[in-house]
Design brief:
This protein has 346 residues and is of the alpha+beta class. The protein contains 12 helices and 10 strands. The radius of gyration is 26 Å and the shape is elongated.
């Protein structure tokens, strides 16, 4: 059966109408649309053919039809005309990123929340750390008699800190000794190399001082792991509760989104640009009734950032795909500038 131009027009019209109304689309409605130009009887025949091809579904006993997941896939890949952003829309997104001296962690979290507000979908934002990133420097700053602030600075410009409480009084001699030892043991090594086994071998080299400095050694390991694991933030999860089709699944999806170890590999395994997973195309069963839009972005020379939208299959793809693409580009540019500035300062 040929998927000719008339069938393509009718499929596009059904999908675009269903996205707007959420109601099954009938032949009479379609026949009256500009560009269709055939009788309701002819439209019914074409709809029956599209149904046989698996591109349409008939909900319950309704006379109308709705798109199947396969129908959406054909539409997105071959028929859809993206809606370019207006200058006002671009200005609105640009304004979100007009931030002086932003904090990278806060920027990613704020971006996830802003994109959720902008699109009405739940959002995820994630960064991963390239394997070649090393520990640039470790510092220890006394806070009071028995407390220090431990800092790990990575070659990517990321800085992480942690307050460590010690069971002895800190003085300049102790901090100088430990800084020299820590930088000799960790600086220049990739974050990937700093495993639990490696950290244990470093602690052993302290000999009689192992127990004394153990909180600092453990702190360095935790900070290095935090940098290597990257960032992961959610935004707008509660928006899933506003959609009728999520009445019995919203909490299940929200729990999934909180588990980075499950959703992270799905987000991070996509090529550049925007990738769309429709319904059962998602490898995670919790998302079988949802669509996931994923955009990758670069931070400096590294393609290590991802931002995604989760919402109902009936979403305005023509509008959301270019919005997500532009949003990701701006986020990557600002994060790149931020990390470059931090690296220069160090």
């Amino acid at each position: 059966m040929r998927f000719d131009e008339r069938k393509q027009k009718i499929l596009s019209a059904i999908i675009e109408t269903y996205i707007k109304t959420g109601e099954p689309v009938g032949s009479k409605t379609l026949s009256e649309m500009p560009g269709i130009g055939v009788s309701p009887a002819t439209v019914r025949n074409e709809m029956a053919a599209l149904f046989s091809m698996g591109l349409l579904e008939q909900p319950h006993t309704s006379a109308g039809r709705v798109p199947s997941h396969l129908g959406y896939r054909i539409y997105i890949d071959n028929l859809m005309r993206e809606k370019p952003l207006t200058e006002d829309e671009k200005d609105g997104i640009d304004a979100l990123f007009n931030v002086g001296d932003p904090d990278p962690d806060r920027l990613l979290q704020d971006s996830a929340e802003a994109l959720a507000e902008y699109t009405g979908c739940a959002t995820v934002a994630m960064t991963t750390t390239p394997a070649h990133v090393t520990v640039e420097h470790i510092d220890i700053v006394p806070a009071d008699r028995g407390t220090v602030v431990l800092l790990v600075i990575a070659s990517s410009g990321v800085v992480k800190s942690k307050v460590c409480r010690l069971n002895f009084e800190v003085n300049v001699g102790i901090t100088d000794f430990f800084k020299k030892f820590a930088n000799g043991s960790f600086a220049g090594r990739t974050l990937k190399e700093i495993s639990a086994d490696y950290v244990r071998s470093v602690a052993i080299r302290l000999g009689d001082y192992t127990e004394v400095f153990n909180p600092l050694i453990v702190g360095i390991y935790e900070l290095c792991k935090e940098v290597y694991d990257g960032q992961y933030y959610l935004g707008g999860e509660e928006k899933l509760l506003t959609y009728n089709q999520y009445s019995d699944r919203a909490l299940e999806i929200m729990k999934l989104l909180s588990r980075r170890e499950e959703i992270g590999p799905v987000l991070g395994s996509n090529p550049s640009g925007v990738t769309v997973f429709i319904g059962k195309e998602n490898s995670l069963s919790e998302l079988s009734g949802s669509s996931l839009l994923v955009a990758r972005f670069s931070i400096g020379e590294n393609d290590c950032g991802t931002i995604g939208l989760i919402g109902p299959v009936r979403m305005d793809y023509a509008r959301l795909i270019p919005h997500l693409e532009y949003f990701a580009e701006k986020l990557g540019t600002l994060l790149s500038m931020t990390y470059q500035q931090k690296t220069g300062e160090e």
